[in-house]
Design a protein that fits this description.
Blueprint lengths: L4 H8 L10 H6 L1 E2 L8 E2 L6 H4 L3 H10 L28 E5 L6 E3 L2 E3 L1 H8 L12 E5 L4 E2 L18 E3 L18 H14 L3 E6 L6 E5 L2 E5 L5 H16 L4 E4 L22 H15 L5 E4 L6 H7 L3 E6 L4 H10 L7 E5 L11 H13 L10 E4 H4 L8 H6 L10 H8 L3 H17 L3
Parallel strand pairs: 3-6, 3-16, 6-9, 8-10, 9-12, 12-13, 13-14, 14-15, 15-16
Antiparallel strand pairs: 1-2, 4-5, 7-8, 10-11
Helix pairs in contact: 1-6, 4-5, 5-6, 7-8, 10-11, 11-15
């Protein structure tokens, strides 16, 4: 009998597929307020609480927290994405998780990031009645330099460099079990578990040509070129493969500058696609997958809204921070008739280098979740892992995108997870953030 991806992953890890009800997680789980009472997740946590568990433990917690109240002794064979219509991306909350930072670090190597994401899923609030929450993974494909290796805290090992046409990152996939479950099936297991949680999933990538390499079977890697039709075809094919695994959102770094727009503020390296090229590419991804509900999100696509809508985007970042609740609500009212595309509220972004107080971030989350007159007019919002699970004081979102240090004090992965994030104050902050989501889920 053919196993679904989740059960196949359990078997590959030496586990049985029979699941046991997790009474403790049921007891401590946060609930949505009012009619959203059945929407549950684990709040008042630090990530190490979950990352130290086994994958099977995480699957059992996920099934125990089932919104429908049904406990499945075996994970179901068919899971659909939560249905918020084709334009769901216009309203969604996007939460980026740095899967490399929470990966398993052992003896100088980094691996199994997708398994860590599965373990963290019970702590991500589910989607609300009126809009979806969507996890964005920082890394899927290989990075150009140092993939699978930790480096010093100030030694560059940037995620902002992609290697296409070469399977998936060794930071992310558990390659020790690929004889039992393929990299694609490992990603599919994560996608199915996220969908079971009522959460949508996407991935981030760069489009600056000199930050992308194309692996070639018979010669050295080539620098990507937007003038090379073969490279463009590889790029489209790679995106389509992920969408066919169940990913449904693509976060496009430097999207604002596509077609040479506002290049004085462009900080990437290399050429960008022309405007008509990106229109063609996004349309091709939709056509080849047969999916009409893909959300394309543009970084800093925040000035000429019509330009980004016609490009094929659904949401864009870096327009308003959320510090001023009334400004967010006013923008929501101004854009309420724009149902295909809207710029969104940033709590923090991938370039954030820290410095915001917990109170300021909680205020921004509050504005993002409640800054409107009607829930149907909500703006999209953008958060980082750090906005739900605060990092330790001497690192930041951007630092972890640019470097890959271990914070372990004894060489173990558990010590890294414990020391990567803030401790008691981080737990309290997570509780406060969870309380905001609890009230939002009913809207």
């Amino acid at each position: 009998m053919k196993l679904n991806a989740v059960n196949k992953l359990l078997k590959a890890l030496g586990e049985t597929t029979k699941l046991e009800y997790n009474e403790y997680s049921n007891y401590i789980g946060f609930h949505g307020i009012g009619n959203a009472y059945n929407k549950r997740w684990l709040g008042n946590i630090v990530p190490a609480d979950l990352l130290k568990l086994s994958v099977k433990d995480a699957v059992e917690i996920i099934v125990t927290l089932s919104e429908g109240g049904i406990f499945y002794n075996k994970f179901p064979d068919y899971i659909e994405t939560p249905n918020y219509g084709d334009k769901w991306g216009r309203l969604a909350n996007y939460i980026e998780i740095n899967d490399r930072a929470i990966a398993f670090m052992d003896d100088g190597c980094t691996c199994k990031g997708i398994l860590s994401c599965i373990k963290l899923l019970p702590a991500i609030p589910p989607s609300a009645k009126s809009w979806a929450n969507c996890i964005i993974l920082s890394q899927i494909w290989q990075n150009i330099y140092g993939d699978a290796y930790e480096k010093g805290p100030f030694e560059e090992n940037s995620i902002y460099g992609l290697r296409l046409n070469a399977s998936y990152s060794e930071n992310i996939i558990d390659y020790s079990i690929v004889d039992k479950i393929t990299p694609e099936e490992q990603l599919k297991a994560f996608v199915d578990l996220a969908h079971f949680r009522g959460i949508k999933v996407g991935f981030r990538h760069v489009i600056s040509a000199d930050q992308i390499k194309v692996a070639c079977p018979n010669h050295d890697d080539e620098i990507f070129s937007w003038n090379n039709s073969k490279h463009i075809e590889i790029y489209i094919t790679e995106c389509v493969k992920l969408m066919n695994l169940g990913f449904e959102c693509m976060f496009i770094d430097s999207a604002k500058h596509i077609g040479g727009y506002d290049m004085a503020n462009y900080t990437g390296v290399g050429a960008l696609p022309e405007y008509h090229q990106m229109q063609y590419i996004l349309n091709e991804i939709r056509l080849r997958t047969g999916k009409t509900n893909i959300s394309f999100v543009g970084e800093k696509s925040s000035d000429d809204f019509e330009r980004y809508r016609l490009m094929g985007l659904n949401a864009g970042t870096d327009f308003i921070t959320g510090d001023n609740f009334e400004a967010v609500r006013s923008l929501s009212e101004r854009l309420k008739y724009y149902r295909d595309y809207a710029p969104g509220v940033e709590v923090t972004n991938d370039n954030n280098e820290g410095g915001l107080s917990y109170e300021q971030k909680l205020n921004r989350i509050n504005s993002a979740l409640f800054g409107y007159y009607l829930a149907s007019d909500k703006l999209p919002s953008f958060m980082q892992m750090n906005d739900l699970f605060p990092l330790r004081y001497d690192t930041s979102t951007h630092h972890l995108m640019m470097t890959n240090p271990s914070y372990s004090t004894d060489g173990t992965a558990l010590s890294h997870w414990e020391n990567l994030f803030a401790q008691d104050d981080g737990r309290y902050y997570n509780k406060c953030a969870g309380e905001l989501f609890a009230y939002a889920l009913n809207l």
